[in-house]
């Protein structure tokens, strides 16, 4: 679970520390009773197989290839490899809103050498970063600039209200002399079109009950690798208790087919929620990526890698947490329940904070990317990099489903984020969406990395 909301960045930077430390849950205050995740949460409550009939949602549509901005495109190797493997999933029959233009925010030139405090068993004596008895941390250094530290193991986290229909994770597998294919290493489908494999769910309301796709307001679900890492005495990084689940390391692609209805929507009201309207995460869905060590060490504990100095946790300059799609509530002047903000906390902070004034009210329903400056529609996807936060915000999809896409491509130092309407899939990525086959060639991944939505 995230430690702080996007809205607190300005206060944190300019030193309004006392109010943050003494204040509300929305800036990272520990809610009692929300403990470690990393538990198995392995039950599965999926029902019968989905049908490939289009139903109310219709068949998936595609957009023309369009153009992409020039001058700043990543170069992660040759293209090619446009083939796709077997095992495409049937198109789920979803009630959906009219097609939209989609939206992407692309992060370029990500990664730099640095360090963060990493937990160690106090008995090891490796406590050069923090040593206060129960909390022992060493200064873990890394020298790569290739997406570091986002090339390390990451766990996806989902906060509601959210209805998840399908989820998949892809990672590259080298083919001798023939580049790389990206394999579907983990998958889950609410309707049972494919069996759950490669991942487990944990945290609020999941352990022992299975995941049925519904994430309640203020609840957080961890999406973890089914593989475990050792915990207990001598474990590195150190984590207490029994073995816990790993994240996904190296290059990776997360795809979530979901919708994020408002709490006033009957679909949302039918979900079991974790807190009421006074909570600062109420009606504020979130898709985030959190460093696996941070999740396994106990997200609300007092000894964690989130900041170089755990006593100054509000700086968020440690191992990393990426608020990929975050609706900001916080019950203050930053509240905007209609748009997703985005920012990266870690050794390099990238973000622009929330946009309380952002509005789609004067724009067509098909527009999903709006300027933070004057509320005009974007002509193409946004690109950003260290030192310059995104100047655009993404519309929260409350009426229909979207493919939420998060690609972390290590060789090109690129992170691609975006939302795609199931009936408006760009032709360049039709090899991946909506079928989510068992594997795709690296050229398909490069097309996804380089697409800019809306198309020009």
User: Which runs of at least 5 residues are low in confidence (pLDDT < 50)?
Assistant: 1-58, 65-80
Q: Separation of termini?
A: 36 Å
Give the helices and strands as they follow along the chain. HHEEEEEEEEEEEEEEHEHEEEEEEEEEEH
Counting DSSP H or I runs of 4 or more residues, the number of helices is: 5
**What global shape is seen?**
globular
Architecture overview:
The chain is 6% helix and 29% strand. By secondary structure, the protein is mainly beta. It has one domain. The strands form 5 sheets. Strands 2, 7, 8, 10, 14, 20, 22, 23 and 25 form a 9-stranded mixed beta sheet that branches. Strands 6, 9, 11, 15, 16, 17, 18, 19 and 21 form a 9-stranded antiparallel beta sheet that branches. It has a 3-stranded antiparallel beta sheet with strand order 3-5-4, with no helix packed on it. A hairpin with a 4-residue loop joins strand 4 (130-131) and strand 5 (136-142). The protein starts with 8 loop residues before the first helix and ends in a 6-residue tail after the last helix. 54% of the residues are buried. Residues 1-58 and 65-80 have low confidence and may be disordered.
TL;DR?
The longest helix is centred in the last third of the chain and has 9 residues, at 442-450. The chain has helices at 9-13, 17-22, 266-269, 292-296, 442-450, and strands at 62-63, 103-107, 114-119, 130-131, 136-142, 154-159, 162-174, 180-189, 199-203, 214-215, 220-225, 228-229, 244-245, 252-259, 286-291, 321-328, 336-345, 350-351, 369-371, 382-384, 392-395, 402-409, 414-420, 425-426, 439-441.
